[in-house]
Structures are given as C-alpha cells and as structure tokens.
Amino acid sequence: MSPGDIAFVLLSSALVLFMTPGLALFYGGMVRSKNILNMLLKNFFTISIVTVVWVLIGYSLAFDGSVGGIIGRFGRFGLSGVEGEELLFMVFQMMFAIITPALISGAVAERMKFSGWVAFTSLWALIVYPIVAHWGFNADGWMFAWGVRDFAGGLVVHINAGIAALALVFVLGPRRGFGKEAIRPHSLPLTLLGAGILWFGWFGFNAGSAFAADGIAINAFVTTQIGAALAAMGWVLAEWRKTGYPTTLGAASGAVAGLVAITPAAGFVTPLAAIAIGLVAGVVCFWAVSLKFRFNFDDSLDVVGIHLVGGMVGSVLLGVFASQAVNGGVADGLLLGGVGFFFKQLAAVGVVIVFSLVASYLLARLVEATIGLRATQDQEIEGLDISLHEERAYVLTD
Amino acid sequence: MKLVIAFVKPFKLDEVRDELKAVGTTGMSVSEVRGFGRQSGQTEVYRGAEYEADFVPKVRMEVLVADEQAAEVVDAIRRAARTGEIGDGKIAVLPVEDVVRIRTGERGTDAL
Asked: Is A396 among the domain residues?
C-alpha cells in the first residue's frame, strides 16, 4: 500500500469508530430522559467489549483462512502474526465489528439490563458477527466466493444486526406501556446531532471499504452522500403526505436509512443508481417502521425497520444496479442483464436472515437463562439511569 | 387576604405579569407545570405514529393579595391571559389565614 492509502484507511478507521458515539446520541435522544445514560453507555461500552473480543479471537474467526467457507481458523488468536498492512486491515474491520452489535441496542432500549447487554454482545461479537463477516468480507467465505457482493456491510452489518435485534426483542418482550402509553423521544436535537455524526463517519465506513484511496473510494463517497440525502428526502415527503407534517425525526431516520441502503452498493453502482436506492430506502423504511405496531413487537427505536429493511433494500437493489463498469470486482446487475447475480443477492439475504435470527435467538435464550436479560419492573419504572447506574443525565437542581 | 392561583398558557406569562404590575401587584411566584382540562391532550407524531400527549405545558402563578384587591387581580389575569381559544386556563381564589414576612416578622396585610 502507498503511504496515501495507509493514511486514508487509518483516518477511515477513526471515522468508523466515531459512528458509535454518534449512534449513541441518535438513540439517546429518542428514549425518555430517565434512560438516556443507559442507552449511551450500552453503545460506548460496546467499544470496549468488542475491542477485546476482536483482538483475542474475533478477527481470527473472520479472517484467518477458511473452514469450508463457513468460518475462519484460530491461527490469528491474539493477533499472532498480524502485522503491518494486515494490522491496518484488522483495526479497520474492528470498527465494523464494534458498531454492528451497538446497532442492536436501539431495539431493546429502556428495559434490557446492562449486565445482560454485556453478556449478549460479548457472545454475539464472538460468534455471530465473525461468521457472517467471514461469509461476506473474506474472499474464501462462501458468499463472496459464490459471487455475492456486500461492499461495506449491508448483509454483514445491517441485516445481521437488524434481524438479531428482532430475535432479542422476541425474547425480551415489550416495554411497560408499549402501544398503550405515549413513549416519546426526550431530545430530538441530540438525535439529529447523532444522525449528523453517523453521516459524517459513514464516509469512512463506505469509502474506506475500498481499502485504498482510489477511484472506487471516490465513487463510494459520492454514492454515500447521494443515498443519505435522497432517503432523508424520501422519508420526509412520505410522512408529510401521510401525516401532514415534515419532522426532524423523519429527516434523521431517513438519512440513516439511506446510509444503510447504500452501504452494500456504494462502490458498485453509479450516482444515478444511488438516487434510486436512496429514494426507495426512505419511502420503504418509513413504511416499515409502522410494522411493529401492526405485529405488536416493541422494536423500540426501529432497528428492524431501518437496519434490517434498509439493508435488504440495498442488498437487493445492488442486484439490480450493480455495474462492472463502475467496479470490475462485481457482476452486472439485473438492469444490465445479470439475472444470476440478482438471485445470488436474494439468496444471500435469506441465508443471513435465517442464520442470524436463529443464532441470535439462541444466544438471547442462553443469557436469559443464566444471568437474565431484563431489568426489574421497579427499575424500568424508576428509569435505568438511576436504578442501574446511579447517575442522572439532567440535574435541574443542585 | 386571598391567594389567587392561575393556570395560563406559557406564552401569555409576560403579558399577565405586565398587567398585574399595572394594577399594583408587588409580587408573584410562577412555576412550569403540565396538566389538562377541557383542552385535553395534544397530538404528537413520531415516525408516522401518532401519540396523544395527556398533559400540556402550562404556567401556574400564585399571587397573595389583600381581600379588596382580589377581584381586580383576577380581572387583570383574565384580560391578559385570554386568547378566546380552548385551553386558556383557570383562575382560583382561596382564602388565606395569615401571611408572615420571614425577614421582619410582619404579619397579615403588612406582610404582603
């Protein structure tokens, strides 16, 4: 790698890390004021948990060779033998391994106890993430080898986290008052700031995934901007039409939905395709967040509606819009006659959903049966900040 | 002596204060409260889902006055706080047994 490439990937790694505190604010603003510190800490502490897991064994399971295309080996345990440019690759990938379980925290907000969260994310980052990352990001993984493409993690990060969130919600159950009381965001300015930080960091996530400061990185940077902007527009227009009001939360949510959807496609599609992907993601995800009321599952901050559905939109539309002219590392999509590639993308979406749903459900049951997942009813009513952390976010009287 | 307690729309607070000063009121306390009356709650929309907020923000003001001033103060508050829309608020007048100024120990109307 040239010094320019190395500098670019180092900075991209820092940008991706910055997304996790951004995500914390995005989520933190949406919970009630009695639970924001718990929400922030679940995200922030995930940085520590996954760093340890990844260094010790996660990286090895994802990227050390391959056992039948399913999982890596133990040879890089504790990063043994990992140095130089591979060390750079390792730390860039570490930031993805961190934010992926952090995404799940929004679904279980305001009721999951902290120790249960630590246990679940430790196991999930140890088992589920490295396996799916192996499939999608390792050239020897079965998905990659079969021709499926996932530029920066539509399958590996967003579908994986989104369906895991759904599994965890099944086991955890709804918040007290879900569907009956108004459980409202307490600080949308924080949410908008968090969405802005996510958008900023996402340039590292997507452009950095080219792993070189080259034309593909530039293409990914541009499509990322377009996807986010158009999805924010699509979401706001859809809600304006349906409810009569354009909202701050709608714009923030739409931007994130667009960033999610463009992630698998960023380095493989043209700017015009990014317009279509962004618009579709904004409108479809706006519709998807209403499903939880229809099917009565308390995905509190819409991880399913935005990350699972947005990831599906992006991964499937990559199958439509992929262009070999943009990137020689991908097959042409449906629009350019690539029927086979389109169906491979569909199959990959299905397999990741089934695997992650089952694996995450089993891990959730395991944690529930051992140390428990849910805060007590009293703790939930009093607020997790005071009851679990003995802290308060907003001190109005000294 | 009377204690006049009024619940008014928050954005009307400054006008009410000016009107009360104009009729010679020398002090008042205000607090931000939430509540509902006939106005009931307010609808809020988050991610397309409508929520009925049971309580709406109001300002609660308390004014201690001499018996003969009470009617004038009530009128002043009503004049300043009225918009004619539902949710303008309410005024209550309560009898007061005694008032003590803590610094000097004055009692009754001397303490007002």
From this structure: no
